[in-house]
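Q: I have two molecules that I believe assemble together. Could you output structure tokens for the complex as a whole instead of separate predictions?
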Amino acid sequence: MRQLDYFFNPKSVAIIGASHKPEKLGYVIFTNFLGNISERKVYPVNPDTTPILGQKVYRSILQIPDDIDLAVIIIPAKVVPKILKDCVTKEVKAVIIVSGGFSETGEEGKKLEIKLKHIIEGSQTRVMGPNCLGVFDPYTKVDSLFLPRDRLKRPRLGNIGYISQSGSVGSTIIDWLAEEHVGISKFISYENGMDVNECDLIEYLADDKRTKVITVFLEGVIDGKRFIKVSKKASKKKPIIILKGGRSITGARAVASHTGALAGSTKIYSAVFKQTGLIETRSWEELFDCAEAFSTQPLPKGDRIVIVTDGGGFGVLATDWCERQGLQLPEPSEELKKKIRKHIPAYGSLHNPIDLTGDVTSERYKIIMEECLKSKEYDGIIAITLFQVPTLNSDIVDVIGDMKKFNKPILCCSAGGDFSQKISKALERKGIPVFETPQRVVKAMAALVEYKRWLSKS
Amino acid sequence: MRQLDYFFNPKSVAIIGASHKPEKLGYVIFTNFLGNISERKVYPVNPDTTPILGQKVYRSILQIPDDIDLAVIIIPAKVVPKILKDCVTKEVKAVIIVSGGFSETGEEGKKLEIKLKHIIEGSQTRVMGPNCLGVFDPYTKVDSLFLPRDRLKRPRLGNIGYISQSGSVGSTIIDWLAEEHVGISKFISYENGMDVNECDLIEYLADDKRTKVITVFLEGVIDGKRFIKVSKKASKKKPIIILKGGRSITGARAVASHTGALAGSTKIYSAVFKQTGLIETRSWEELFDCAEAFSTQPLPKGDRIVIVTDGGGFGVLATDWCERQGLQLPEPSEELKKKIRKHIPAYGSLHNPIDLTGDVTSERYKIIMEECLKSKEYDGIIAITLFQVPTLNSDIVDVIGDMKKFNKPILCCSAGGDFSQKISKALERKGIPVFETPQRVVKAMAALVEYKRWLSKS
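A: Yes, here they are, computed for all two components at once.
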């Protein structure tokens, strides 16, 4: 077992600061663990030893008659050093410090955090946080998020690993992913990163079998040299997509009062990401758009993309973004045109985008897409599928889903109301992601191409 | 009555190509008009005079015993010239040609379109299209969209005017707006623009009392000089937000086979938009994000923005985008800090972003936002309201809605699942738009600031 495993699959957990009051964070976290895995023992710790939900409460972690793999600490900052000492004495393997009030608050807090560092020095105890949400693992049901489940849903099982330096960015997106039915392998919010930091976590997820793609929201890096080394190695194993907060000067100042990290120069960061094969995005939407593409699609062999569309204007917008993102849109060869010409009406277009027009049928999508995928002319397809046209039946879902057999990336773009969204969801259940705007679908395809290039170069 | 009024509020309508078969476009369009306004007469025209849905069918428009304000033509391209001649003879005021097969298909089609132009020369008949969707007006219920309502919803009454050169971009967004409960004043898809074009429509909406903000999706401009003149004048009356398709070289080629327009140089277009006070956006999401802001908010006096947030990471991301968009984020003055300090916990932040932290209450939002709005230090607020935090009650909707009394723009940012979306919707019903990402909320605020600057300059 690797040391960080204890954060994600502990046999025994102590909740230090487990509360009797349902509105308290310590109550939410305790109930997250309660009875979700029968083999796991959960011990509430609180100076008030009145039972919580019928469970015996311990005055101190030292009194628990069992080894503890994971302790979650949610108590006022000033008491944390004493409690962390107890954890070290107890030889706890992993500690998540949820409590805030450390380096993010200024000089006093910084001193307190350094004190914590000294406490664990030389011990076997690893610490996540402080000032963090900790871990959510849908496979092992570890869940130290203090946000109640009726307010913040948890995503389903999946293969996207998600590391966030920010709890708010982390948890908000977790809720959004759950709503969008996107699955994850692990979520980690490590915030101040006094011990376990982005380098440890990238390294860990790079070797995690359940994780196919790693997403990172980063505000600053503590050890630049190690970050470069770790990222370079990890990005050869699987794609790593990154969003950097604090890119602007005022943003960097905001980072300082948020996690206490040094945001550093934007240009340096972008250069480092490029050099180490990390895929940089500009918003959290883009971060997870790209993640969905990697999560579900094979890598393209090259950058030759074909756009098929039933809406000319959407085709035009996608074309604009392909050029911006450096994707090639070669015209179909005369041979390919000959094959598809008779299936496209005269008012359509045989160029690239191939315009199937607003009276498209599922059959037309099928023939054109199959011919393009079978040909050696294209490495991937962007299919714009505006489902509102009256001639399109719901068998379009099976038609496009079936294209996966060609083992080339297929990404769809569609938008609209109820009717359209229902078909999009069905398509996503078949493993074809659907994006709302041309900009977003193109960026996701470009990420696949960029990563393939990186792998070929390195 | 201005001439274009007949497109939007006709007393009598002929549907030429009204069909007996429910799957046909001509049937959908006919039923859109049927019985929705009792004072309006609707006449189906078809060589097969079997009644449609009990309505008498006319062999030709010339046989209708009534004046016709609006004719909608949905018949094969080659028959259109003859029918348009009939319309001119009948002195029809406004004609929407839905049929495709004209300049968008190449040389032959171009000739046919020129023929149409000659037919209406010197007459009082104005033509929209060909190859277009035509008009949807939620106030007068004119609806020539051939997309069935169970597939494509229609938006509610509102004050956003929407001109689209593309039917697919137009209709897809119409469906999306309906889903998002965003109201519009008028929607027009004019596509090939052989007669009525973007200039006529911008001019018309600039004087339309129900339209507060104009949105335009444009692929190319036919008369550049007039466009500049019209835009300059119109943008002094109300904000005009624009998305240009075919900005790239390959995109321009795609435009040619879509609407037959010349896409022109990107740089020239962007320069023209700037010079005429048009607000340019990069995606259709941005287009309507900005429109929602103008639709609901007063203009800011200047560019001094304050961000209040309950999530540090979201605050950092918003800060980055403010700098990119040229918005100022001044620190609160010592005087203002003194007023708000005691309401923010020590682990929060009194800089800008003001970090209210994850244990924020509605009361805290109320006090801080009110102090900021009352002060003379800020021209607008970006409120990041991550509703998942356990301490926040649903009265946050009333608290923020109530801030409108200060007459400064307030835009919110929130994301997540069910719970969070429900509160966002409630807030939007109070007239405060909520955006999913920091990038989007900042762009919308920047558009307000940009337009205010344009008004002050010109």
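A: One point stands out. Chain B is about 40% helix and 15% strand.
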